[in-house]
């Protein structure tokens, strides 16, 4: 090739490169528009801000440095380093599959408690009269603080799958936090109509904007059946910290047994509670002993429902803890402790 | 060394050895042993009140193995030695009432005075009078002066309160006779007054008995004539009253008072006192002769309030009062009877009664035990006027019992509550707080509200200095402003304002979780303040009832009924 031909080729390549850059810019602008459109369509654009958005080749969408304005705590400072939607699919305009990861989810639990703006006397009274058993459900935020977790720095991933024809929904989530530990949960629901699925989406939206999330969730779960449940929890600081709190609460002295670990009497109480609606006393005793073993030496615990079992949520009654206990027992859930360290 | 000095040496050697003891003997009073002789088989104690035994008038109890110790000579010897001890250890003592016991039986009652070199004499009347006079001085805060008969041996006469008694001593020109004259005229004028006396020998300087006394003023003019009887120089009109006068005082310009001792009952510990009054005539400006029969007012002065809880004893005392009325005022139709803890100063008794319309004055007088009015018609028996009877002793006893029952109920309530409460609840009760706090929970509270939080914490202190202390349980905590309140390490319940430690404080004090600004601290004896487990001790300490026991009431219900 002659010199002039080389020059012409070079200019041609430059032109292609310029076109490429131009196309990327156009594409990026289009991505931004698409994401903004998506957020606006779901009426959450005011509740979410981000520094950068992209529709990458491997992921459906990526948002960087995201900040949420939560409906219940609008002033809470929070940050998600990178929020990626890996896959998004709709069937007949209904979201049928979503998988996402949120890396670097961080916010202060102390700040969250402050932003709740409870009267000072209430805060002191709640903490002074805190019951370590029931307080976990009635005041979970304070329970986390008492366990020593004053800040969340977590990676969260989740997966949503819905088959409208079969009315089935599967939800998976995994949370990894230095203090909260690693939570890996999966639940499969049956008998979920399109309308109920809509309530689930509304519940998510109302988490960010005005609305009754709790009522949406109630409507979502109405008539639903649970067909599979699994939870694996690996403790880092949460259970250990909560045990330390209970030790001080019940004046544990050096060299004495931790009052947080159920003794024979405590195990018997757990068995009695479990057996209230379930006659499998031996199985319940095993469950209580497994729970006790985990509390004594918190590492990894796994709950897995028996395959083929399904339970309608409508048959459950009583307090939340009672309902949850009955659900797990009816699903014939096995409980196992895994030692992660030798 | 002769036998006397041997005994003397032994006696005082043992006295010194016994000097520090203050036993509680069967009399129920605190006693100070002032002398002791093993050889003679004698112990001498002085009654003490609030730990103080050395007083103007001592109550001496002499315990002897042999009754012959109380013979005139033996007791004289003993008292001369006791006197030496008293002069050294209690120079303030001037009189002593002596109770002598042999084999725990009262075999001798007498008195002695420093002025007579502690020579004992049987009977205690003189000292009783002194006691009553002193009681009036101490309890009413009066400044009394003791009058002395200038002639002959010192004689106990009425004490005169110079602040309230409008009384002046007026002498005859030759100073051989004198009277006590009641008038509200200025003292400087009275200094120039004099008397003329007819029908009396003036043997005792102060006129006693029948006399006709002319009183002349500063100009030498006849002011008045006092024709009748005199008691200790005081004009009693037509009544010849030979009594032991106690105190001369006044209740304002219009009413002047003179108290006298009727009798003493050593068994019941009662001194019966009555009152003469002299009232000012507003028209003439003169004071009436001393009189005390219309009505006859009698006070049973005693510290023994329990006497009036028993109806039979009260009736006996009232009968005694009636017999005194018959002796001193045979024609009187009314007795105003009072039982008091003081010999004077009670409204309605010697002082004018309160104005019933003035609510501010109608408070119950704690010195008054019992009050009753008795009336009779000529030739008939005395009858108690029921609507004027006040048994304050019973009322107070009923109130006390009600309060005690109420307190018992409260303590039972505490006991029942504590049996249900947890250990922290008991610790809170121990320090009188509403609750005990959990350190981690309160550290979170103070962080969330961004202010110090008032807390009560159980802690184990590992080190302390004048101004700060450190704990290692339940967490490392820095306690400031201890100001010597935490003088030792160990388990404590501390109260104060808690805040989270600053980064600077954490660096300086080895990662303390928080800082407590101390306001109160209670040191515990047992690990983790284990004494809180003993509920009965907790309740006893809280209510200051060291003998309290749960489950049974201290009184039967019927006893509490008014």
Topology:
The complex is a heterodimer of chains A (342) and B (562).
Chain A (H helix, E strand, L loop, with lengths): L2 H39 L6 E2 L2 E3 L6 E8 L9 E14 L2 E15 H7 L4 H9 L6 H4 L1 H7 L4 E13 L4 E10 L3 E10 L3 H15 L4 H9 L3 E10 L3 H12 L14 H12 L5 H16 L3 E5 L6 E2 L7 H11 L3 E5 L4
Antiparallel strand pairs in A: 1-3, 2-3, 3-4, 4-5, 5-6, 6-7, 7-8, 8-9, 9-10, 9-11, 10-12
Chain B lengths: L2 H16 L11 E8 L4 E7 L8 E8 L7 H18 L5 E8 L2 E9 L7 E2 L2 H16 L4 E2 L12 E2 L6 E5 L6 E5 L4 H4 L3 E5 L10 E8 L5 E10 L2 E2 L8 E7 L4 E11 L4 E10 L16 E6 L9 H18 L5 E7 L27 E8 L7 E9 H29 L2 H9 L7 H11 L3 E12 L3 E6 L3 E4 L9 E11 L2 H6 L5 E10 L11 H9 L13 H4 L2
Parallel strand pairs in B: 3-4, 8-15, 18-19, 24-26
Antiparallel strand pairs in B: 1-2, 2-3, 4-5, 5-6, 7-8, 9-10, 11-12, 12-13, 13-14, 15-16, 16-17, 17-18, 19-20, 20-21, 22-23, 22-25, 23-24, 25-26
Account of the protein in words:
The complex is a heterodimer of chains A (342) and B (562). In chain A, a hairpin with a 4-residue loop joins strand 6 (151-163) and strand 7. Chain A is an alpha+beta fold and 342 residues long. In chain A, strands 1, 2, 3, 4, 5, 6, 7, 8, 9, 10, 11 and 12 form a twelve-stranded antiparallel β-sheet that branches. Helix content of chain A is 41%, strand content 28%. Chain A has helices at residues 3-41, 109-115, 120-128, 135-138, 140-146, 194-208, 213-221, 238-249, 264-275, 281-296, 320-330; strands spanning 48-49, 52-54, 61-68, 78-91, 94-108, 151-163, 168-177, 181-190, 225-234, 300-304, 311-312, 334-338. In chain A, helix 2 packs across helix 5, helix 6 runs antiparallel to helix 7 and helix 9 crosses helix 10 (281-296). Chain B is an alpha+beta fold and 562 residues long. In chain B, 25% of the residues lie in helices and 32% in strands. The longest helix of chain B is centred in the last third of the chain and has 29 residues, at 392-420. Chains A and B meet through helix 2, helix 3, helix 5 and helix 8 of A and helix 8 of B.
